[in-house]
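Help wanted!
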Amino acid sequence: MPRAGGGFKAAPVCSGLLSNRHAAPSQIDNEKEMALLLDIKMPDWMTDEDLRAELLSHFPGADIRSGDNPGNPDEIEMLTVSNYLPGEALRYPNLKLIQKTGAGVNNILADRQLPESVLITRLQTNTSGTEMAEYALAYVLQEQRQIRTYHRQQANSEWISYAPRKASDTTVAVLGLGRIGLLVAQRFVDNGFKVAGWSRNPKNLDGVSGHAGADGLTRVLAGADYVVSVLPSTQQTRQIFAIDLFRNFEARSFFINVGRGDLVNEPDLIEALDQGMLAGAILDVMSVEPLPADNPLWLHPRVQLTPHVSGYHLGDAVLDIGENYRRLQSGEALLHLVDRKRGY
Ligand code: NDP
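Answered by r_m:
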């Protein structure tokens, strides 16, 4: 599935009812002849038409257009994308808002031609974040219960048993304690694991030892059996997983990356794995997506890959696209506004 924009994969439509923060459709003021353009550019995941139909069923008065039929570019006030192309904002002289159909906005912010005046919003991630927590737990339990070993043994008719590793003896480090990281950390707490967390600002959470800063990161990595990255891609985090950081990993540890691929220096990761600095890597996100067929990560015996699927469904978060369009027109505060300076 093409993931150049690095956005969510999700079920195309949701059938959720309007939540109480979504205003009645009649409140959409369509007199200005301004429009919301849906140009997702990921048809395997969600078509503009499906999303348009879903939004129109909740916001029937809105002027919502699809990428293949945008009409007059001067009328486009809000653009919704999953895959954002450099310079795309410049096509629409009156653009005020770019809405991402997911959480990662790094590709939009990386656009040097993006006008300062354009606001950026993301979506809330309760549904996809819950799925990402499930993904991380699934891969951790796979190792705890030696499932890969038993698959190999079955192929050779081998009957050799191993004690399952206890959750209470196992530490999971969650890097990034935002909307998704919190769900991931909570999932491990609920399953009896020891959990350490790392964020920009220290956090005080039940069952999670909180850390921040460079020293905090070193402390979190020391003793961690699993390191789950749910960090956004920002100037500070890109290429953070490089050889010097991998030296701080436990040799027995597994690295699970569900944040963004460009956080990882991939040649360094391969070197770190080959030198035994960590035991394995589970990567849902890559620096180039789809990962080229000749990339050595594909065949590395200690790497397990998935095609950016850990967070898949949007649930009724998709309705916030229509709600933000309404709020933009009425001048109300937007939902899930991104801090452009901070980068997430
Ligand atoms: P949030 O913006 O809610 O949280 C980001 C977290 O990262 C915060 O805890 C923040 O710290 C922390 N952080 C940011 N910069 C640093 C830094 N320099 N040092 C330490 N911590 C830092 O994001 P979400 O949880 O909603 O999403 C995280 C990322 O997950 C997205 O940006 C996206 O890239 C990725 N994603 C991947 C998906 C997939 O399918 N694989 C699906 C959805 C999202 P603080 O709390 O102190 O601000």
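OP: Thanks! One thing I noticed: The pocket of NDP is lined by residues 8, 102-104, 125, 128, 176-181, 198-201, 230-234, 236-237, 258-260, 284-285, 308, 310-311, 344 (CB under 6 Å).
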